[in-house]
Amino acid sequence: xxxxxxxxxxxxxxxxxxxxxxxxxxxxxxxxxxxxxxxxxxxxxxxxxxxxxxxxxxxxxxxxxxxxxxxxxxxxxxxxxxxxxxxxxxxxxxxxxxxxxxxxxxxxxxxxxxxxxxxxxxxxxxxxxxxxxxxxxxxxxxxxxxxxx
Length: 149
Ligand code: SF4
Known about the structure:
By secondary structure, the protein is of the alpha+beta class. The chain is built from four helices and six strands. It is globular.
């Protein structure tokens, strides 16, 4: 399945060793590059697979996964804490000329009551033009969306 097909279906890819499982959901990734800058020996777009799960220790990988603002990257550790640590207070941060970064725990619910997604980090569309509602898909850059004069 191509990345484009995965994006449409919401499928996530899984990378695991005996210490950590990292999941990447392409449709949520807006290519901020935090992971690439944070741990380039693990997150490398030129490599296949692009995540080398054995190239750093699990704690360091978890630390960098937590910097992914969109929730495209998540992790769990099979032998220790079951899931990522959760913040107690929900924080929503306006990005200049960009989306709203949400830090949870958060449950996103559709108008009909269906749960769209639960998690700790999301990037929500602010320009209104995303093709992946309610999530940001990076369209704000293409349309030169501005929140300031
Ligand atoms: S940090 Fe998250 S949103 Fe940014 S490029 Fe990596 S996976 Fe994508």
